Amino acid sequence: MAGRRPGSRRRTLVLAVIAAVVVAFLAGGGVTWWVLGEEDDDVRDHVEVSGGELVADDSDDAYCDDDDIYSYNDCDTDPDETYEFSYRITNKGDGPANYSVVVNAFDEEGDFVGQTYVGTTHLAAGETDSDEGEFNEYSDFEGKSELSDIASVKVAHAERIALAN
Fold first, then answer.
1. Which H or E run contains 156?
2. Which residue segment(s) compose the domain that 155 sits in?
3. Which chain regions cross the lipid bilayer (predicted)?
4. Per-residue pLDDT of the chain (165 residues; tens, 9 = 90+)
């Protein structure tokens, strides 16, 4: 064959084989990810939040002594307010894990008011941890929102960190 370089057919064949291997590897990786990848299990399903109410506490009354020798007023005239809610975290995984959860607060219209964080550590598989969470005067609120604007709470994000032991 005049005009053809020796080995060009072989080079084309080698390039075709390499391209086929790369395509097969990428396709195989995608199938493997699809089969072994993340389950449809949303970690937020491991967490329940319920209840929620604005609580005012005049806890300083028992310690209020404005008749002492100090010049400052040690009586807090404003009640301590918190918005308290209950939460339950159930480890639905196969082994022990830590959980970090973001809880959002909303007003009557469903607008975002603020967020807080709850969690638990070293929760064994199948076990449940229940506790109280709260928003307080030191929580960050959106715009001019305040504690009294909170009408409901909802789990916004949950993260499960599996432990080796």
1. strand 152-162
2. 43-58+79-162
3. 12-36
4. 555 555 677 777 777 778 777 777 666 665 554 444 455 578 999 999 998 999 887 555 555 656 666 656 556 556 678 999 999 999 999 999 999 999 999 999 999 999 999 999 999 999 999 999 999 988 889 999 999 999 999 999 999 999 986
CATH code at 118? 2.60.40
Q: Give the end-to-end CA distance of the chain in Å, rounded to a whole number.
A: 70
The conformational region for residue 52 under phi > 0 = left, psi -120 to 50 = alpha, else beta, is left
Do 49 and 85 contact (CB within 8 A), yes or no? yes
Q: Are strands 112-123 and 80-90 parallel, antiparallel or unpaired?
A: unpaired
- The predicted model scores a pTM of 0.66
